[in-house]
């Protein structure tokens, strides 16, 4: 899941010296390798819907490992990156934590993470989706074990689509505009609501034109390319076409979108699997089968794709030997097939390994729906700063939907990227 990552925060993290990593782990350095250890784990999942289930898993780990206690700390996701980099750069860092895939390479580059190759944490590496293992690497070494994965999909209310005589999800953005207008006319509600001013939710529009924010392999900033401009023009049109919801740039925009979808006041959104449990609680989806899940629509090139998100479990490089060993055991337990299947059934999140997709897990239509489209998700490049690129993009997209020209908005983004990515050509 991704709610927004500050570029400035990442720059600070990369500027912290490696010497800081010599500080003690979150539990101190008093534990012996064969003695009792108290492991501090920072969890960044939703405190209400998800964290209790992760905490239950932590208790199962304690039961299986009586010499290891887990100090389970839930940290709000939108505060976690700053808190982690501050703690890892000074004192009080957790021994092990849940790291957004967009943070892992950046923390590894800063020297904050312990390489996991050859450790118990990575013993089952071959069981995971290869792209997710690759996404957890930096400079050829593995720094995280994939815990959950996600992507964006096209989520829709089948009943509202049926009222407009629509039986299939749209395959292109143009088809979506046509469907939205028909739904507004026939069902009396907006046909589509797109989260505005958020770079992550705009990525399918770039991918649909065969481009990205940057070309990491060739060290080139591509956000001002003709393809990117075309993609963002399409993005902007999704707020002004008949039957689409107007751009909401308020601080509560995300909640407004989800409330409207869950209550049947809008027929479709672009969203990830992390919201499935909340969607099922909505009045429009008392019958889970009413939720349709399809790939995001394609752009003018015929290409469609959404970013790969999710979370890894990472181990703090500054912890002592005993805490690192305990953390590696914990990472292996939390990412085992059994644990992933448990979390998937409780939280409706997507496992990162195929052997966790049991019959019971796939009985959840939300999981089955997202599993079907996960293969088309676009992995992130091995670029530590990539996660931070969404910040400037989101800010300037917010200005674009309020009147700033697309080209001017993207020129500003490119200028910000040039500061963040020295050596990249514009």
TrEMBL record:
InterPro entries: SBP, SBP_1_CS. It holds the Pfam family SBP_bac_1. Transmembrane segments: none annotated. Keywords: Signal, Transport. Gene3D superfamilies: Periplasmic binding protein-like II (3.40.190.10). Residues 1-22 form the signal peptide. Belongs to the bacterial solute-binding protein 1 family. PANTHER family: MALTOSE-BINDING PERIPLASMIC PROTEIN (PTHR30061), MALTOSE_MALTODEXTRIN-BINDING PERIPLASMIC PROTEIN (PTHR30061:SF50). This is Extracellular solute-binding protein.
